[in-house]
Every structure is written in structure tokens, then in C-alpha cells.
Design the sequence.
């Protein structure tokens, strides 16, 4: 088939499709055409019927705790947080709470907020705040994907108190009430 014949047939097919579309619109009653234009006007001025459904609530997705543990290691969270029962290097100073008991104490959304917006809640007087009042916990938003946050939350939610004694930390003790955020 010649190049010109192929182009002609392609244009003919496109023309037929456009023609059928125009004919179908002309065949609609005027009232349905008006309804369509009213609907588009309605939705363009504030999303019309595309509002948040009544009763909608964010549902934290399931994650993979094994992958979440890898994220914990990747971010070196153990440099500030002890996890009893894990073989991570010891934290270097009083920065964040021991995490092995945290899983049952908090919702996944709480952990996610601590990871993606550590300054949302900074508990005063527990040793978790910097001199400027911000959280000592850094933001890792530029270093993790959404899936990594989901998996890290799954790891944290799966933590349970361990019967093992804490790793030696040179006599260091956590601030009182250390089962709170950061």
C-alpha cells in the first residue's frame, strides 16, 4: 500500500469517528444537552458533586514490617532510638524513646505523622526538643518514599515489649514517660 493511500485511509477513519460523534450529539434532545452543560457549569465552580463523601475517613494502608525494618536500618533510626530485642547499634545519647513498647500504644497515623511531620507535636520537658523548640527528630521526607513510610509504620506497629534486657548504653537512662512520641 502506498504512503498516500495509508494517509488517506487514516484520515477517512478519523473523519468517520468525528462524524459519528457529531451526529450522536445532534440526535440528543435539547433538554439532555442543556443538562450536560449545566452539569459541567456546576462542577467547574467548586467540584459540584465531587465533594469528600460523608463519613469518609483516611485508612492507613497495610505495610510490610520486614521492609519497614530495612527502612529503620537505612535511616539509622537506631542512632536515636533503642528497640529492645533487636541487635541494632546502641543509640548515642538521650534523644528519642525506646520503641519496643510503642506498637500497641499508637495508631499508624500517629507514627506516620512523627515520621513525615516531626514538629507537629513536640512534648516539652521530655528531652525531645531542640533549643529552638522544634523536634530533635529530623525530617526524612526527601529520603523516603511513601511506600517506605508505610512499611516503617508497619514495623513500628508490630513492635512488642521484649523480655530481653536493654543493650548497654553506658548507664544512660531515657527521660521519664519515655513511651511518648519521638
Sequence:
Amino acid at each position: 500500500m502506498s504512503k498516500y493511500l495509508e494517509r488517506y485511509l487514516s484520515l477517512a477513519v478519523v473523519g468517520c469517528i468525528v462524524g459519528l460523534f457529531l451526529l450522536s450529539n445532534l440526535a440528543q434532545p435539547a433538554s439532555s444537552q442543556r443538562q450536560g452543560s449545566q452539569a459541567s457549569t456546576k462542577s467547574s465552580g467548586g467540584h459540584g458533586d465531587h465533594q469528600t463523601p460523608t463519613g469518609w475517613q483516611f485508612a492507613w494502608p497495610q505495610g510490610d514490617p520486614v521492609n519497614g525494618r530495612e527502612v529503620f536500618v537505612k535511616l539509622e533510626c537506631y542512632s536515636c532510638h533503642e528497640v529492645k530485642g533487636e541487635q541494632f547499634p546502641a543509640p548515642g545519647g538521650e534523644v528519642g524513646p525506646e520503641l519496643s513498647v510503642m506498637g500497641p500504644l499508637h495508631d499508624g497515623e500517629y507514627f506516620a505523622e512523627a515520621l513525615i511531620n516531626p514538629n507537629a507535636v513536640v512534648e516539652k520537658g521530655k528531652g525531645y526538643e531542640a533549643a529552638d523548640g522544634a523536634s530533635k527528630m529530623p525530617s526524612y521526607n526527601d529520603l523516603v518514599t511513601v511506600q517506605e513510610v508505610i512499611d516503617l509504620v508497619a514495623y513500628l506497629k508490630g513492635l512488642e515489649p521484649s523480655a530481653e534486657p536493654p543493650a548497654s548504653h553506658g548507664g544512660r537512662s531515657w527521660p521519664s514517660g519515655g513511651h511518648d512520641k519521638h
Notes: Confidence is low (pLDDT under 50) at residues 4-28, 30-45, 166-182.
